[in-house]
Amino acid sequence: MNEIRRITSAVVLDQGRLRLRFNDSLEKVVDVSPLLKGPVFEPLRDPLYFRLGKLDPICGTVIWPNGADFAPEALYALRAEHEVAS
After folding, report:
1. pLDDT category of residue 54 using cuts at 50, 70 and 90
2. CB of 49 within 8 A of CB of 43?
């Protein structure tokens, strides 16, 4: 049985980069810049607005005030810039 992916910790680093910890203890830094396409993600291209991202502990993913978010599974699947040792 596959475990449902959830983010348990999220830190916005700099433009397009997030440090994420998942419920299976994987921790990695990812660049979401290539995913910032379409109207809902347009505001996230602004570095000041991108910094407003935060963890939604109910949904288990990163959200922004305009309703933009990413599925935890999509973030899990992104290639890590590097994995962080626990």
Report:
1. very high
2. yes
